[in-house]
C-alpha cells in the first residue's frame, strides 16, 4: 500500500479494508471497515481530516481533498464512482456519486442520494436526502425510489465484499501469453439500472 505520514499524521486503515498498491493515502485519513480504495485513487489528508466510515468505496482515479483547515466525512456505504473528485464536501450514508462527477467545497450530499455521472455540484450546495441529481450545474430532478436505492445498495455490497476478495486472491503476476482453452467467464451477478427496471 502507498500510505504516507505527513506532519506526524499517519493514516489509519482498518485491517478488513483494502487499499490498492497504486492508490495513495496521505496524512490525517481514517478508513473504517470493509472499505475499498481502487488503483489511482488519491486521498490527501495533508490539510485536513478525511474520514471514510465503514463500507465506503473510492474507485479508480478518484481524488479526495480539501482546502486547509477543513475536515470531511464520507458516511457509511458511500459509493464514489470511477474518476470522481470530492473536494471539501461531505457525503451522506449510502449515497452514490457517479463516474467523473465533481463535488465542490462545503457541499453536502444527503443520505441515499444518487448523483449522476459527470455532474458538477457547486460549492455549498445542499442536496436533500433521497435526491436524484444530474447536470452541470447539478440540480435535483426527482426523488430516489425504494427500487433505485435497493439497486444501489446491492452494487455497494459487491464493493464491500471486494476487499476480502482482494486480500485473498489479488497477486502481482506475469501475464499469460495465450488464452487458456478452459478460461471461465465471470458470473453475471448485477445488472445496470436500465436492465434492472426494463419492463
UniProtKB/TrEMBL annotation:
Q: State the Pfam families in the record.
A: Hexapep
Q: What Gene3D superfamilies would the database entry show?
A: Hexapeptide repeat proteins
Protein name in the entry:
Gamma carbonic anhydrase family protein
Q: Which InterPro entries match?
A: Hexapep, Transf_Hexapept/Carb_Anhydrase, Trimer_LpxA-like_sf
Instruction: Give the top-rank taxon of the lineage listed in the UniProt record for this protein.
Output: Bacteria
Q: Which PANTHER family match?
A: DYNACTIN SUBUNIT P25, GAMMA CARBONIC ANHYDRASE-LIKE 1, MITOCHONDRIAL-RELATED
Amino acid at each position: 500500500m502507498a500510505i504516507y505520514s505527513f506532519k506526524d499524521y499517519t493514516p489509519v486503515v482498518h485491517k478488513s479494508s483494502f487499499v490498492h498498491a497504486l492508490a495513495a493515502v496521505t496524512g490525517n485519513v481514517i478508513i473504517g471497515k470493509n472499505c475499498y480504495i481502487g488503483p489511482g485513487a488519491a486521498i490527501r489528508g495533508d490539510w485536513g481530516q478525511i474520514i471514510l466510515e465503514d463500507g465506503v468505496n473510492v474507485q479508480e482515479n478518484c481524488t479526495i481533498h480539501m482546502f486547509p483547515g477543513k475536515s470531511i466525512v464520507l458516511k457509511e456505504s458511500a459509493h464514489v464512482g470511477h474518476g470522481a473528485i470530492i473536494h471539501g464536501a461531505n457525503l451522506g450514508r449510502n449515497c452514490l456519486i457517479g463516474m467523473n462527477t465533481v463535488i465542490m467545497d462545503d457541499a453536502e450530499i444527503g443520505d441515499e442520494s444518487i448523483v449522476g455521472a459527470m455532474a458538477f455540484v457547486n460549492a455549498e450546495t445542499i442536496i436533500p436526502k433521497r435526491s436524484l441529481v444530474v447536470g452541470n450545474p447539478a440540480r435535483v430532478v426527482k426523488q430516489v425510489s425504494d427500487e433505485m436505492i435497493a439497486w444501489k445498495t446491492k452494487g455497494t455490497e459487491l464493493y464491500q465484499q471486494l476487499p476480502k476478495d482482494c486480500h485473498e486472491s489479488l497477486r502481482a503476476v506475469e501475464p499469460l501469453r495465450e488464452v487458456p482453452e478452459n478460461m471461465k467467464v465471470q458470473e453475471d451477478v448485477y445488472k445496470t439500472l436500465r436492465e434492472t427496471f426494463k419492463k
